[in-house]
Design goal:
The chain contains 6 helices and 4 strands; from the N terminus they run E-E-H-H-E-E-H-H-H-H. By secondary structure, it is an alpha+beta fold. It starts with 5 loop residues before the first strand and ends with a helix. The relative contact order is 0.11.
Length: 174
């Protein structure tokens, strides 16, 4: 389980019958994510800032367009609605968590991350050029800033955290 979502695996057992009437049993594994419905305080945050709504929009609308331009910049998402995301299970393709227990990537893995991130950004630029419009016009829900949104009151904890963080950086720069 993540901080802003619940992660689980979905296993489907499929029975197929071929042209010769032979039965074949197959298993398909998927990775799923749902909002943290059982944690009221986290759900309040997720709903207030539209966190899961944004993620659904990214995977349902934007990512399929970007994957047409440069494939394999993110896992394939097979289903996305306001309460469930279903992804391909990357472990079936031999993907593993690269960071050690300390959470730090080695140089080769960091290089891979940066190349993939660059490909994702390149695909978004190509997509904008092809469409003749910016992402925030094409898919506003997918690119809205929801960590520190405009218009939240100065007294809101997110705004206070943002301002405090900025003050720390100013002091570090001095």
């Amino acid at each position: 389980t993540g901080f802003l979502g619940r992660h689980q695996f979905l296993m489907l057992k499929v029975r197929r019958i071929d042209a010769e009437k032979n039965e074949h049993l197959e298993q398909q594994r998927f990775f799923t994510k749902t909002p943290p419905l059982e944690l009221a305080s986290r759900m309040e945050y997720v709903e207030e800032f539209g966190v899961f709504k944004k993620e659904v929009s990214v995977y349902r609308e934007l990512m399929p367009q970007l994957q047409k331009i440069i494939p394999h910049v993110a896992p394939n998402c097979y289903y996305a609605d306001e309460r469930l995301l279903v992804f391909e299970h990357l472990a079936d393709q031999k993907f593993r968590m690269a960071a050690g227990r300390d959470g730090i990537l080695n140089y080769d893995h960091l290089h891979c991350v940066l190349k993939t991130l660059a490909a994702l950004h390149a695909s978004s630029i190509i997509y904008e050029v092809r469409c003749g419009r910016k992402l925030n016009e094409l898919h506003p829900e997918a690119v809205v800033e929801n960590a520190y949104p405009l218009g939240i009151p100065e007294s809101h904890v997110r705004k206070q955290n943002f301002n405090n963080g900025n003050r720390v950086f100013v002091e570090l720069i001095k």
